[in-house]
Amino acid sequence: MFRFHVARLLRAREEAEGRVIPLRELSAATGVSVSVLSNLASPRPGATTNSRYIEALCRFFGVTPCELLELQPPLDAGGSCHVDALYPGTAQPPETPAPPPPTPEAPATAVRRRRAKRS
Question: Could you tell me the pTM of the whole model?
């Protein structure tokens, strides 16, 4: 799950410009709807969006995606981004390996087996 820092970045931009920037203005500048911006600026986790919106917001705020959002829960101590490390307890058991393919039979053996089935 990602946590977005839109509200923090918006406050910083407002302080730098010395004015309030309404979500409508941010929406007009980025092409991201006000409702999506409201969800991303909310402190509730679980907001979702697409890469086009992430790019537009990064360009508006002049930041990288790493500054716009962070992965929650954070990566484990080893820096793993594997799903098992991010969501423990949800891993599927490993699949059993498939049996090796049968070896091709000699033509005479195959013919004898077919004849034996007919009898």
Answer: 0.58
